[in-house]
Write a structure and sequence with these properties.
Elements lengths: L1 H61 L11 H18 L3 E6 L4 E4 L12 H6 L5 E6 L6 E10 L5 E10 H5 L8 E6 L4 E4 L26 E6 L2 E6 L8 E9 L4 E8 L1 H48 L4 H34 L15 H19 L3 H29 L7 E4 H18 L3 E3 L8 E4 L1 H18 L7 E7 L4 E7 L29 H11 L3 E6 L4 E7 L9
Parallel strand pairs: 13-15
Antiparallel strand pairs: 1-2, 1-5, 3-4, 4-5, 6-7, 6-11, 8-9, 9-10, 10-11, 12-14, 15-16, 16-18, 17-18
Length: 577
């Protein structure tokens, strides 16, 4: 009975310890998920505000356009309509119109638009001399829109009208719908107006309630609870939404909304369960060994008692009993030695039981190695089907190289984000450029971009980091290809210029650099509004990487296009870090 109670107490202790480990591991994993969720929410909010800011700036810049000064004649209105239509087409705006102080529409990008915008909150704000903004549903089509109204002043400073730009929210959502985690933006009335999940649109938050209510007002499964500083939702709204989610909120006063994100906590629960199961398994293994050792000791004790009784009763068999006793002692020593070995194994197993933290978030720089791996895998498959095993093996080798390169890229991205850097040293620029050309070769071939690059026969050494230099030149090559995407003839030239100040030039035959002063500023981009090809961070990142090597990067316009020059310190022999 006593042994049963001891075993039951031990199992209860293991259960309590495992539960504590699960709860602690769950909290830690949720903390890590919260960092990723916060980063995803910040990225989505920045992307939305940046895209809306384009239309806001468009309204301000177009409000005082000279063409809008002559709207009293038919020819003047026709000219203004043509200009507004051109602006709307190029910016993907739903409509661009001009209204006088009474709210009457004098000119519009689309024919047939008449009436008054007097009741529009954005127009009312513009009539007070300030930039106005509003959002709502467009009558008729029912599109969700953002409206920006900029006042137009006469020479005396009085407001004489307003330029109104109407942006379609759905066009803005196209660039990030369905990506990352579930993100939605709620206005001051509690309405979900923007989201990357269609099923959440137009849901309503009533009063001070935490959850959301569907447009039809039906009751849905929902429960909210707190885990320390975090809010966890349990819901069953859609197969594309997590069953259990971490809920974070961010105020966005610039657009008058609140950004919210739902991060799936299933990975955190799995990790916590794995940790708890590992601890339980180790405890049970240790308990089993301890139980066996105790049972062995108890058996030995009983045997010794029986032996002593037999010795006392049968003195004649003393010699035989002593021999039996020595055997029992030997077995006891053996059992103790086995117990010590088992304990040592348990200590070693305990050293290996710690689990590493899961790394959250990868950067967009992995896209190039991933594309290369996919290409090499497809090529290897094709070569295997054709019986070219050597070529297939070569592609498999390149996949291995790309995987190693991805590991180095992840290391460098994490070091860069934490203000750290890998040790720098002597780098072969020829090898770096060959790697960059290899990473971009598939894209250049698909877009009919000819590449003029002849690798020197001998290595050219510079001071820097190999993986980060590859990243710089991949960015420059991709930017050059982007600049020539709208023309038939496409050509990129890469050249190394040795000398006292080692330099590499990347030249294209595109339209050139629009603004050299803002070229390396974060989020500066000349791509079309609504483009999903980037956010203007490539050149800014490249600038920071080259500066960290003690080098310099600059861009100029040539007679044929744009030319970027990367200057680096030459390195003929290994330098001290």
């Amino acid at each position: 009975m006593q042994r049963i109670l001891v075993i039951a107490g031990f199992l209860l202790m293991v259960g309590v310890l495992s539960s504590a480990v699960w709860f602690y591991g769950y909290r830690q994993a949720v903390f890590q998920l919260s960092e990723k969720a916060e980063a995803d929410l910040d990225l989505a909010a920045d992307r939305l505000t940046t895209q809306l800011q384009v239309y806001q700036e468009l309204a301000v810049l177009m409000a005082s356009h000279p063409v809008l000064e002559d709207l009293n004649t038919l020819s003047g209105r026709a000219t203004a309509q043509a200009l507004l239509l051109e602006v709307a087409d190029k910016t993907a705006a739903v409509d661009v119109l001009y209204a006088d102080r009474s709210g009457a529409v004098l000119a519009s990008a689309h024919e047939g638009v008449a009436g008054s915008v007097q009741d529009n909150p954005a127009f009312t704000r513009a009539m007070q001399g300030a930039l106005g903004s509003a959002h709502g549903i467009l009558p008729g089509p029912g599109n969700r829109i953002f409206t920006y109204a900029a006042p137009d002043f006469d020479e005396s400073g009085a407001v004489i009208g307003a330029l109104i730009v109407i942006a379609d929210v759905e066009d803005i959502e196209q660039t990030w719908r369905g990506s990352t985690e579930a993100v939605f933006f709620v206005d001051h009335s509690g309405l979900v107006f923007i989201s990357n999940r269609l099923e959440l649109l137009m849901w309503q938050r009533v009063g001070e309630e935490v959850g959301l209510t569907p447009p039809d007002g039906q009751m849905v499964s929902f429960q909210a609870r707190r885990l320390g500083p975090y809010e966890l939702w349990t819901l069953d709204w859609s197969p594309y939404l997590p069953r259990r989610a971490l809920h974070l909120v961010k105020e966005l006063p610039v657009i008058g909304m609140t950004g919210e994100v739902l991060m799936d906590v299933a990975p955190a629960r799995r990790l916590a369960g794995l940790q708890a199961a590992t601890v339980a398994a180790l405890c049970l293994a240790f308990g089993a060994l301890l139980f066996l050792a105790t049972e062995r000791r108890r058996t030995l004790t009983e045997a010794n008692a029986v032996l002593e009784t037999r010795v006392a009763k049968r003195t004649k068999d003393l010699t035989k009993a002593n021999a039996a006793l020595r055997r029992e002692i030997a077995e006891r020593q053996e059992a103790e030695a086995a117990l010590k070995r088992a304990q040592a194994d348990l200590v070693q197993a305990g050293k290996l039981s710690a689990l590493g933290q899961m790394s959250a978030g990868i950067s967009h720089e992995l896209n190039q190695p991933l594309m290369a791996i996919q290409q090499f895998a497809d090529n290897g498959s094709a070569f295997m089907e054709r019986g070219k095993s050597e070529k297939a093996a070569e592609n498999l080798g390149r996949i291995s190289q790309m995987a190693a390169r991805m590991a180095r890229i992840i290391k460098n991205l994490r070091a860069f984000a934490r203000n750290e850097s890998e040790p720098m040293g002597r780098v072969d620029l020829v090898q770096v450029l060959n790697a960059a050309v290899e990473l971009t070769e598939a894209r250049l071939r698909s877009e009919n971009v000819s590449l003029d690059w002849t690798a020197p026969e001998h290595p050219v050494f510079a001071w820097g980091g190999e993986v980060r230099l590859v990243q710089v030149f991949v960015n420059l090559i991709n930017n050059a290809a982007d600049a020539m995407s709208q023309q038939e003839d496409r050509r990129i030239q890469i050249a190394i210029h040795p000398g006292e100040r080692l330099s590499v030039t990347v030249r294209d035959i595109g339209p050139g650099i629009e603004n050299t002063e803002k070229l390396f500023e974060p989020f500066y981009s000349t791509k079309a509004v609504g483009s999903s090809e980037g956010m203007g961070l490539g050149l800014s990142i490249s600038y920071g990487l080259v500066q960290s090597f003690g080098g310099n990067i600059r861009g100029i316009n040539t007679e044929e296009g744009a030319e970027f020059t990367v200057e680096l310190e030459p390195c003929e022999k290994e330098q001290a870090a």
